[in-house]
Design brief:
CATH superfamily of the largest domain: Spore Coat Polysaccharide Biosynthesis Protein SpsA, Chain A
Helix content: 40-55%
Oligomer: single chain
Shape: globular
Order of helices and strands: EHEHEHEEHEEHEHHEHHHH
Structural class: alpha/beta
Number of domains: 2
CATH topology of the largest domain: Spore Coat Polysaccharide Biosynthesis Protein SpsA, Chain A
Number of helices: 11
Largest sheet: 6 strands, mixed
CATH class of the largest domain: Alpha Beta
Number of strands: 9
């Protein structure tokens, strides 16, 4: 399995514990330290665990570069991803390996459901959406995307066939990967939670509007022609809606301090997809007029 990490010395041990607690034990762990400046290296070296292979990059390049670096050193048939602020549930690997063992040769990826823990609200909820199996390329083209690569196990040959993650993209890199892999391989899923995903950890991309805004445009620039050819103009609009809501909803729920000056960009996204979600416009207008703190004040009053 592959763990990219950057300045997560306080969190990565929890992620590693969730790996060591797996009921399936035949694995190696590749930790790719993306040029951390904290004590991550010391924490890992002190563990001195035989299943861990630790690499530290000289320059911070982001998760795509870190994951692709790891793919060059993977030895096993399957690859599982774990972000260093998430946790796997104990039977995650066992259940997904069973899917591959019982599936066809065309199967390339397996995923599952998840619990999500909101670090600000201090609550954990089960996120169980409608999942799909088999040839689901059209589903990915329609914007279907499980919330994190930490839910997945993928054949190494499938990752190699599509050359791994696209390092030119900033966000939605997992959806891009599944769209490319699903052109050649089927997917299956475990109908159970397989991870605990932690939201609102301070340095997550979800809190950086400018990076996600630029990432949205890079993704659409790459895929708009393909989407139009395969799904028509409405297919392009449908994908835009999925991506915009994935960008806007969490950032309006927990707006960063600098969001007020970016509100006209955010309004532009909502208008472009012809959004009818009035609650998003109301929150956006409140932030524009009164600043991001208004959202937290209102939430405090309501609670």
């Amino acid at each position: 399995m592959i763990i990219p990490t950057y300045n997560r010395d306080k969190l990565i041990l929890k992620a590693l514990d969730s790996i060591f607690n797996q009921t399936f034990k035949d694995f190696e762990i590749l930790i790719i330290d993306d040029a951390s400046t904290d004590n991550t290296e010391q924490v890992i070296q002190e563990m001195n665990h035989p299943q861990i292979r630790y690499f530290k990059l000289e320059k911070n390049g982001g998760q795509c570069i870190a994951r692709n670096f790891a793919l060059q050193h993977v030895k096993g048939e399957f690859v599982a991803f774990l972000d260093s602020d998430d946790e796997w549930l104990p039977e995650k690997l066992e259940k997904q390996v069973a899917l591959f063992d019982n599936g066809s040769d065309r199967m390339g990826g397996a995923y599952g459901n998840s619990y999500t823990t909101d670090a600000i609200k201090d609550e954990t909820v089960l996120i169980k959406t409608e999942n799909y199996r088999g040839n689901i390329h059209d589903k990915f083209l329609a914007g279907f995307c499980p919330p994190t690569p930490s839910m997945f196990m993928v054949k190494r040959e499938a990752l190699e066939r599509v050359n791994g993650f696209d390092e030119k993209l900033l966000t939605f890199v997992d959806l891009d990967l599944w769209m490319r892999i699903s052109e050649h391989y089927d997917f299956d899923y475990v109908d159970d939670p397989v991870i605990i995903k932690y939201e609102q950890i301070g340095d997550q991309y979800v809190n950086n509007f400018n990076k996600r805004y630029k990432g949205y445009h890079l993704f659409m620039k790459k895929w708009s022609i393909v989407l139009k050819e395969k799904r028509g103009k409405m297919g392009v609009l449908e994908m835009r809606r999925h991506l915009v809501y994935a960008l806007v909803v969490p950032i309006l729920d927990h707006p960063p301090a600098n969001l007020q000056r970016e509100m006209f960009k955010l309004f532009g996204l909502l208008f472009r997809i012809r959004s009818t979600r009035m609650r998003l416009y109301t929150k956006s207008l409140a932030i524009l007029l009164f600043g991001p703190k208004i959202i937290y004040r209102v939430r405090k009053i309501i609670s």
